[in-house]
Amino acid sequence: MEANLRFKNLIVGSLFASFSALTGVVQAETLSVAVAANVQYAFEDLKTAFKQETGNDLVGTFNSSGKFVAQISNGAPFDVFLSADMEFPEKLYKDGFATATPKVYAYGALVLWTTKNIDLTQWQLALTSNQVAHIAVANPKAAPYGRETMKVLSALKLDQGLQPKLVFGESISQTNQYIHSGVVDVGFTAKSVVLSPEMQGQGKWVDVPKSTYQPIAQGAVILNYGKEHHAKTAQQFYDFLYSAKARAIFERFGYLLP
């Protein structure tokens, strides 16, 4: 009797294994994604859509792109990198940490945002007035949005006069905290932030004229760690970033599409 039971269990196990092999059943994987801080809110929607489509999970870590380059170069186990520019992922590829050259997944836009009672209609005059004492900008050495902000101020010949008012955040995330909490009077951030459900309707914002800067090309790469440990799923997510579903999400958050 006991032998028959063992035999039946063996048959059932073998049939299940054969069925799994035939139907391609695989265990869901979880990818670790290094995400530029400006993509933080859009990433939650990307994560949900990717899970629905593939069954695989994403875990995002958010920081400035420059800091991610340092971490990845020192062995941080990220599968995919969503940068806020093309230069940082290009550097990782040239240094041998990514599997291919970066490809643009979206173009980011700059806005000026305040949660205080400041009229932004003539925002350049407002920045130079006594009404504005502190202006938040992401660190231009590590955050591409900060770098583009400084180009805007230079193009408008405001950089020298506003220098004493500038307060630098380590990333767009910290810059947003400064603005949202009222630690500063105004700040430059990504349009994706003010359009996010979490921030929508909070304070006032205006678009920074695109004539003063180039829309920010943001690139993605599969990293060596991803290729070595989760090659199929990393490629799935990379391809998903350029799909119609992902493009619709990026567009909803104010990004321009490649």
TrEMBL record:
Q: Which Pfam families match?
A: SBP_bac_11 (PF13531)
Q: Which InterPro entries match?
A: AvModA-like_subst-bd, ModA, ModA/WtpA
Which positions bind molybdate? S65, I172
Protein keywords: Metal-binding, Molybdenum, Signal
Q: What does UniProt give as the signal peptide span? A: 1-28
Per the record, the domain of life is Bacteria
One biological process term from GO is: molybdate ion transport
Which GO MF terms are attached to this record?
metal ion binding; molybdate ion binding
Metal-binding listed as a keyword:
yes
What family is this protein classified in?
Belongs to the bacterial solute-binding protein ModA family.
Q: What is this protein called?
A: Molybdate ABC transporter substrate-binding protein
Organism field: Undibacterium jejuense
Q: What is the lineage of its organism?
A: Bacteria, Pseudomonadati, Pseudomonadota, Betaproteobacteria, Burkholderiales
